[in-house]
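Hello forum,

I keep getting stuck at the same step: I have a sequence, I want structure tokens, and every attempt I make locally crashes halfway through. Rather than fight my setup again tonight, could one of you with a working pipeline run this one for me? It's a single chain of 386 residues.
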Amino acid sequence: MTRSVLAIGLMSGTSCDGVDAALVRITEIDASLQVEELGFLTVAYEEAVRERLLVLAKGSEGGSRELCLMDGLLGSLFAEAALAVCAKAGVDSSHIDLIGTHGHTFHHLPTSVDYLGHQVRSTLQLGQSCFLSEHFSCPVISDFRPRDLVAGGQGAPLVPFTEYLLYRQEGVCIGLLNVGGIANLTILPPSANLDEVVAFDTGMGNMVLDALVSQETRGAMRFDEGGKLALQGRVDEKLLSWMERTDTYLPLPLPKSTGRELYGSEYVTCLCTEAKQRGVVFVDLLRTTTQFIARCVQRSVERFSPAKLDRLLVGGGGSHNLALLSALAEELKTEVFTQEQVGCNSDSKEAVAFALLAYETLEGRPNNLLGATGARHRVVMGKVQR
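Reply #2:
Ran it on my machine without issues. Output:
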């Protein structure tokens, strides 16, 4: 049986840069899936929107009224991004067969907390999907994470299941690292067996680097483009050792996931204070923090990989950071490639993943990965709006 559909995947990550939109053709031939990217773009958030997203993600500001307003605003922005990627690809919006939208995560609590005398776990993504339904005459699938969470999982990471579908290769142990605001790693074992795949957040990603650069330049720069600033510095081994020793996420067992709740403004303030006390200048702090991201990946591979990595494929915004790529090669002592070097697109990877997850949802097939989220059983994630 051969089936082909046009799908759009939409994603907004923890870096709060904007909405990623990918238009793909998904072809299913018997049990094999192929994905062809037809168009991709990122619609950047206006500065006022980005700043408010960062504030609301802290969880200490905003109320139901503002979250309601932001839910509507993001919904309209996601719809605009979907229409824009159709225009870029030269595809009429009436030809789209399905849309998968992740929304934007405002809070993620995979570990139980006491609330009104009850132990509660929850996750919150906003961006009203009905705006997409208003513009497209196709099913829209959203709100993927909660179903896995209720099944005992972390509700994250979700992309690894799609990586298994697209990248597995018998006889080769492949690591797929995505470095967005948070860095997450999928390890595909040489057996190519779904039950042996492991995936998890390794810890901080671009969000801390971005915050350091924005703070140092007083907002004139949002990020360290290409890792140019970090490459001007050197690794301070004592600060690096302190970062590893005091990090509370790195020692945790699987399954695990994290976010801005741990590596947000409080973390950045603490890191800067420690660096100042040690007399570490800014470029050295940036280089050391970049090295720490790679060190966390190395420690995670050391603890959790079922076999020695044959290669590491790096995607996400961090794949453009030459200082980080160098640090990964140094720490892991294996071949490191970007998605572009193997004919793929680093920036579109997560948006493409949600198009594929949405396809699996419509087919009624379980699309969570137990080795990634730690759920008790496999489930069909995503809420369908027609």
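The domain at 160-342 is CATH 3.30.420.40 (Nucleotidyltransferase; domain 5). If your local run keeps crashing, start a new thread with the error log.
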